[in-house]
Write a structure and sequence with these properties.
The complex is a heterodimer of chains A (368) and B (259). The longest helix of chain A has 35 residues. Chain A is 70% helix and 0% strand. Chain A has 2 domains: 83 residues, no CATH class; 236 residues, MetI-like (MetI-like fold). By secondary structure, chain B is an alpha/beta fold. Helices cover 35% and strands 25% of the residues of chain B. In chain B, strand 9 and strand 10 form a beta hairpin. The chains are: A mainly alpha (368), B alpha/beta (259).
Amino acid sequence: MTTTLEEAPPRRPLTMTAPRLPGWAPVLVGVLAVCGSGLLALLAGWGAVAVFALAVLGFLVALPLWSLAVEGQRSATDRLMTSLVWTASGVAVVPLAWLVLTVVRHGLPEVNASFLTFDMRNVVGDQQGGIYHAIIGTLLVTLAAAAISVPIGLFCAIYLVEYGKGKRLARWVTFLVDVMTGIPSIVAGLFALALFVLLFGPEIRLGFGGSVALSLLMVPIVVRSTEEMLRLVPDDLREASYALGVPKWRTIVKVVLPTSLGGIITGVMLATARVIGETAPLLVVAGKTDSVNVNLFGERMTTLPVYIYYQFTQPGTVPFDAPPGTEAPGIARAWGAALVLIAIVMALNLVARLVGRIFAPGTNQKKG
Amino acid sequence: MARSIDVSDLDIYYGDFLAVQGVNLTVRARSVTAFIGPSGCGKSTMLRSLNRMHEVIPGARVEGKVMVDGQSLYDPSIDPVAVRRQIGMVFQRPNPFPTMSIYDNVLAGNRLNSRRMKKAEADDVVERSLRRANLWAEVKDRLGRPGMGLSGGQQQRLCIARAIAVEPQVLLMDEPCSALDPISTSAIEDLIHELKADYTIVIVTHNMQQAARVSDDTGFFNLKAAGQPGHLVEFNATRKMFSNPDNAATEAYISGRFG
């Protein structure tokens, strides 16, 4: 019953190598999948979408199987999951790219200097009409909405983060803000309409009413994004400021807000981009007009989404001598206006990113 | 300009939780007082109650007396903001303001309180504070660069410069060297020795040698048991604490036989 060191089991060799598929394996499988599904589609007479779907499916099955045979189960799972993630992100981007392409293709021929500077007053049939009044309307209404929502949202977020921590009122405000996020935009429009009708009588339609409706939608987004940004400011900084004998309000103004300024501005820009495309509330309360109106507080005011809606639903008539298949003139105008709207939203997004980068606290070399 | 602090029967609460119980001690003017003890025994809490930073945390409160130069710190007539202007603080982790340059960070205490300063005067304050914090030579050519671009040790010295730029009466330091390498630690200890001439300094540290090196008086905090409030076990001259402490628990802790 004596055991000696010599009888200890021999050490297993340390294996750190494993069979691996070559680097070009995914490419090969991809090409084969496309060829295979293409061939099948040729025989069965399917369309391009079916070919693509089948190729993706083939790739998703073939690569993990090959990997399972050569590399083992862990790598096969890894390859399957990686392929799924790539496919999902691809599928997510496709509709967006498609949408932008379609709008550009239909809208670009329509957009020119006249289109941007003409309104629709007395435009009949396929005469040159434009979106000048709608651009003015969109910018004014959205600007007024932002002017209402940004201060409210900002101060509300400051209350929630800096003063209301753990208080019952703060919990209620957070809950109500969450509920407001889910308000259907048409309800916000009807609320604004009801408000102004109560104040000024049943015939009232005005751009500012649209701003009020949009700000109802915008405030919760601004509150939420600003709240997140303010929470990201480390308490260390607040305490550092207090320890220097700086009062709380000055700490918020001079330390907390500058530190999170980039994020706050980005949030505001994104909230603006979110409401600038709203149609329903403006349809209800701002009404529709063919003329330029720069007075937010009087008369109806058209915005781009409402303009698109009306051009699409009332496109006018096709001239009787036009070649068959010609679209009504309003349809082309709707596409053009859609392109301009998308361009405005994208510009806002780009500006938001730029501003966010400019105001981000500088950490030139390394983080502390 | 330095002030002494008398603490009597101080109980410190977080909400209903009693964190530190029954502390009596005197911090002498123009001296360095160290607080040592195991984690969670209330050293930092104690320190933060000395300049009313404790109440920044919601629900935190204090019972008992803290007298600074004859004034009760927790008297209703005392303005906590004014207290913090007199009693500065340096934190465990360096926390320069990320939106500000090195120059602005040093001046933050003055600027944030919108004290008007001439350019020459401001330059003077910045240079003097940075020199005292032993950082001037390293940053004098890049005062306009962001404070976050400095190394950890430099950032901590920047925070010290920022704290002494407002010329407080008392400087509280909460483990100022715990994130620093030995060289930066040594620089900061030298600084503490220099500052002692003008300031009253209270330092919390986990490093027994550091307490022995820099302090004149030492307080040892401990927990009676887990979940029990922390309390001050012994408060004595550092020399006595580290050679012949009155309390057996102190000796056990200092010599590394804890418990």
